[in-house]
C-alpha cells in the first residue's frame, strides 16, 4: 500500500507545494505519534465544493483579458484546478452587486409579465455558462435571495432589514419559482434554494428579516405549495442560511411533522466563530438533513491585518471542523473580486481566493485558493467521511473515502514546529512529518 502526499508550506511569503510518496509497512505495535484511519466507520456523504458567482465576481471576470478569463475558469472548474461542482448565486441584487436591482418593480404585476433577467444576463449568466463549459458537466446551482423587491417590504427598501409584507407572501413565492424556472430554461441545474440569506441581520445592504415563525409559515403556506404547483418539487429547500451559533434553535423551531418533508437541509455561514458543536447538534437531531456551508469570506472590516497564511488556515480549519461535525457541502463566497475587494455597492469589501487587477489584467492567486484545493481536488462528490483519531492538538485532521475506494486524509498544522505522524490504517503504518505552518493531503 502506498500514499501520495501533497504538501504546501508558506514561509517568508513564498508558497511551495511538493508531492512525494510513502510506502506502508506492517504495524509492529507503533504507539507514538499515531494518526489512525478507520475506513469501515462511515458517516455523512459529501456532495462537493463550490463558490459564489455573484454579480461582483461576474463583472470582474468580464473586465479581464481572454487569457486570464480562461485561467480563472480553469482554476476553479477545470480538471486540473479546484474542480468545483457547486455554485451559489443571488436572486436579484446582493451587497456584492454593482448596484441594486430586481426582476420586477411593479407592485401590480402578480402575473409576472414584466419579469426580466436582464441584469443576470449581462454578467452572471455568461460567466455561469463558461463555468459549465469548462467543467464539461452541469454544475449544481443554489439560488438565494437577499431581499424581496422594495415594494414587498415593510420598510419600502431593499436595504436596512425590514420584513416581507404578509400580503406579498404569495407574490414573492411565485416570484422565486419563476426565477428558478427561468434559470432552468437557460440550461442550468437549479437544485437548491435557501429561503433568505441571513434572515436575522439588518444590513446596510440588501437584507430582509424573518423570525423562525415567519420563515416557517412562508415555507409551509406559500413557498412549498408554489414549488409544487410549478412542478418544482425536486428543488431542495434549505432553511436559515446564517451563522452557526443559532442554527440548532432555528432548525428546531422550523422543522416539525408538517414541514419535515419540505426542509431538505440547513445552510450556515462562519462569521460568528467555529461553533462546530452546533453543527453536530443539528446532525444528531436531524440526521436526514443536509448541512451546507453556503458562505464565508475574509472580511476586510474584521481581518484587515491578517496575512495570507492566517486567511488560508482559517479556511482549512473551518472546512475540517465542519466536515467532522457533519457538513455535506462547502460553498465559498465570491470566487474572484477586484483589487479593492469588490465591487460592492456599500463598500463592504472582502478578500477572495483569487483577486484580479482589472486595470492591468493581473491575477493574484491567494494561498486560500491553494488550501481549499487541498480538499476539493481530491475529495470527490459522493465521498463518505470516515473515522480518524489523532494524538495531538497541533494537528487538525479529516479523512474521507471516495466512491472509487481511495482514501483522502487532510492534515493541517497551524503550529510553528513540524509534527511527526505515524499514519496507521488496516494493520499498516507509514511515517512522515507535517511541516510547520503547512497543510498536507494524503491519497491512499
UniProtKB/TrEMBL annotation:
One of its GO terms (cellular component) is membrane. Residues 47-379 form the Glycosyl hydrolase family 30 TIM-barrel domain. The keyword Nucleotide-binding does not apply. Residues 382-441 form the Glycosyl hydrolase family 30 beta sandwich domain. GO terms for molecular function: glucosylceramidase activity. GO terms for biological process: glucosylceramide catabolic process. Pfam families: Glyco_hydro_30, Glyco_hydro_30C. It comes from the Bacteria. Keywords: Glycosidase, Hydrolase, Signal. The keyword Hydrolase applies. PANTHER family: GLUCOSYLCERAMIDASE, LYSOSOMAL ACID GLUCOSYLCERAMIDASE. Belongs to the glycosyl hydrolase 30 family. This is Glucosylceramidase. It comes from Falsibacillus albus.
Amino acid at each position: 500500500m502506498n500514499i501520495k502526499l501533497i504538501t504546501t508550506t508558506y514561509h517568508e511569503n513564498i508558497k511551495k507545494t511538493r508531492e512525494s510518496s510513502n510506502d506502508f509497512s506492517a504495524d509492529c505495535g507503533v504507539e507514538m505519534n499515531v494518526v489512525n484511519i478507520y475506513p469501515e466507520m462511515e458517516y455523512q456523504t459529501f456532495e462537493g465544493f463550490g463558490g459564489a458567482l455573484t454579480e461582483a465576481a461576474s463583472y470582474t471576470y468580464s473586465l479581464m483579458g481572454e487569457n486570464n478569463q480562461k485561467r480563472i475558469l480553469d482554476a476553479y472548474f477545470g480538471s486540473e484546478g479546484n474542480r468545483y461542482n457547486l455554485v451559489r448565486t443571488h436572486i436579484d441584487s446582493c451587497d456584492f452587486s454593482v448596484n441594486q436591482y430586481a426582476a420586477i418593480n411593479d407592485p401590480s404585476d402578480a402575473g409576472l409579465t414584466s419579469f426580466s433577467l436582464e441584469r443576470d444576463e449581462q454578467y452572471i449568466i455568461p460567466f455561469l455558462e463558461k463555468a459549465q463549459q469548462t467543467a464539461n458537466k452541469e454544475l449544481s446551482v443554489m439560488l438565494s435571495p437577499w431581499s424581496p423587491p422594495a415594494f414587498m417590504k415593510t420598510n419600502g427598501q431593499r436595504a436596512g432589514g425590514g420584513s416581507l409584507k404578509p400580503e406579498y407572501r404569495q407574490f414573492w413565492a411565485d416570484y422565486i419559482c419563476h426565477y428558478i424556472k427561468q434559470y432552468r430554461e437557460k440550461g442550468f441545474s437549479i437544485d437548491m434554494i435557501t429561503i433568505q440569506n441571513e434572515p436575522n441581520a439588518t444590513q446596510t445592504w440588501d437584507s430582509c428579516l424573518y423570525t423562525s415563525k415567519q420563515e416557517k409559515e412562508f415555507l409551509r403556506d406559500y413557498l412549498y405549495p408554489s414549488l409544487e404547483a410549478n412542478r418544482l418539487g425536486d428543488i431542495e429547500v434549505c432553511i436559515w442560511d446564517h451563522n452557526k451559533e443559532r442554527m440548532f434553535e432555528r432548525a428546531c423551531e422550523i422543522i416539525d411533522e408538517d414541514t419535515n418533508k419540505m426542509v431538505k437541509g440547513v445552510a450556515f455561514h462562519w462569521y460568528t466563530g467555529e461553533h462546530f458543536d452546533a453543527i453536530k447538534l443539528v446532525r444528531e437531531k436531524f440526521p436526514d438533513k443536509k448541512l451546507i456551508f453556503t458562505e464565508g469570506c475574509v472580511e476586510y472590516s474584521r481581518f484587515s491585518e491578517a496575512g495570507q497564511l492566517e486567511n488560508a488556515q482559517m479556511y482549512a480549519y473551518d472546512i475540517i471542523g465542519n466536515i467532522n461535525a457533519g457538513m455535506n457541502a462547502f460553498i465559498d463566497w465570491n470566487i474572484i473580486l477586484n483589487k479593492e475587494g469588490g465591487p460592492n455597492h456599500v463598500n463592504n469589501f472582502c478578500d477572495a481566493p483569487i483577486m484580479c487587477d482589472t486595470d492591468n489584467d493581473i491575477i493574484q492567486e491567494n494561498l486560500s485558493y491553494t488550501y481549499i484545493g487541498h480538499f476539493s481536488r481530491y475529495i470527490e462528490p459522493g465521498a463518505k467521511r470516515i473515522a480518524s483519531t489523532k494524538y495531538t492538538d497541533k494537528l487538525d485532521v479529516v479523512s474521507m473515502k471516495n466512491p472509487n475506494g481511495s482514501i483522502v486524509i487532510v492534515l493541517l498544522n497551524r503550529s510553528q514546529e513540524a509534527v511527526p505522524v505515524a499514519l496507521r490504517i488496516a494493520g499498516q503504518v507509514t511515517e512522515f512529518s507535517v511541516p510547520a505552518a503547512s497543510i498536507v493531503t494524503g491519497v491512499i
